[in-house]
């Protein structure tokens, strides 16, 4: 019986090919979109979960200050005095370009991710150690561990163990171990690991105290909340003044909503929520379209149902056939959607900004979820035919009194839902791109126009000559040297103001820095030659946090014993993306030799930029022939900070377009049925002199009302969703009324265009065809 029902179901699918292709194709595209979103969602929630002990690994942070940089000296106290801790290690990241040189073999490379830690790291995170000189990866204070990728890049097939390398042109170290690359879905990256037991290899100081992130592994059975309570009660006994320590699980760091600054890669939980919302909408729209299709098929088959009941078919047989037909259509759609997903999987890097691979998606865990969703869809879509069969009256059928009554409220509700979803999604897309446009054109506090940054090798004796020769070029308006720059600050220092201490981003600057960068001085005076090594300029935010009312006798006291005299206040300028508020910053007139600058900023005159850069490259080749010149324009650098949002915005636009297309298909299906059911009415009206325009208004009028109702429902929903998303940005655009109005106009236009296509066919049809049998 099941095989017979299946054959009948396939026959009916083939009977109306166009409508079947339209609905099944739409469902396939919708479900494929949901699968892709589901895979991406799962991938984002799987970050850091490839570490075997991730459930027991926590990072300590100060809840009151929202700060994860705690004193390095806390490490031995944690390890020795708290039996709940099985392992503890310091973990400090630095994510900026670092030169690495092996002078003996004349090989060098540049890396972007460096970690300062100790041997406990290898117990806590269990990276596979490929080779090592000793039982421990770090076998001495000068030892470093490199990843397999860096080992192959620098040494090829040669053994890197025991090789002496120089990092950052100043740190001399020996390679003592090689490990496999850290998992791809880790929130922190490492290419070289420094032994933090060596103070020179610790990367961050605050008020002359080395600080780090502390990661701990709790023993099985230890309660993290109880441990945190005991820790706060007792840690003060060891001389630490932390206020309110809390534990953050390793798996929570990537999507954390805590406003803490660190070098972990970060996801956007609110953007993921939007994706999940879109996936649910797409699934709902696909199901509604299919449900309408099933209902239409059932109404068209009432005659067949009556005949089957007349010849003895029972209720169970009719239900069995109807459910088989529903399941067959949906399963065919699912098969097509899986094929489509496989085809689209290589394009996920362009779609999400993150490549998804089958082997890393945890498919055994996801398959039951997808199977359950398919089962629910089949179950929901089976209700309609079962309901119609249960209400079918054989007496009415045989007497010819069968009629369809009512205004079909369910179809009105589903149509309003589809239009609401479309308006909400169009609004979401408009707001996302409005915000991205806002951050790209926001005043960053310095002039980015034609301003280029050239990365310099540290401790090169020709840096001074490079700037002088570059400045002589006719198209170079200004140039200046610095250690750090807006967007790439690699040095932070504490304010050294006791309990109210705060961190300042420090940029060590050379001559003519403010003029070259276009930073406005709003208080005080410019730097003089006599200020070199003695003075600095703070930004407005630092001036505010210090609580100063004037600059008389004010100093920045962290950098050296006598501090730096603060001679001016600069207009706030961004040193990071607009996700973060303006941070306190200080421009220190460099005390050190020019050999320690790492950036040359050059303002170019308008013209042939390619030729201009080529002339600068020629100077570089003469003076620094052993290094590659890397040039980045500041506007490109800051816009790159929003690449992830831009890619996800495009992905949301793509899936929103899918949802809108599904809505159009649903509207098309409904107007098709309305036109078919009212064909005699339209024929009568035309015979009595109705114009084509009047027929179009008749058929389109209700859809305009549905769009208005949907707009009223969708607008507050979209406003709430986007208001939450904009909380990720410290500086954000306004949720203007015209965005919502434009979304409504778009939806109305799409709906009317879709309806009018079928309405026109119905309105221009020869009325004789509809009335010939009356």
Question: How would you describe what is shown here?
Answer:
- The protein has 774 residues and is α+β, with helices and mostly antiparallel strands.
- Helices cover 48% and strands 17% of the residues.
- It has 23 helices and 25 strands.
- The strands form two sheets. Strands 1, 2, 3, 4, 5, 6, 7, 8, 9, 10, 11, 12, 13 and 14 form a 14-stranded mixed sheet that branches. Strands 15, 16, 17, 18, 19, 20, 21, 22, 23, 24 and 25 form an eleven-stranded mixed sheet that branches.
- Strand 4 (98-102) and strand 5 (107-111) form a beta hairpin.
- The radius of gyration is 34 Å and the shape is globular.
- It starts with a helix and ends with a helix.
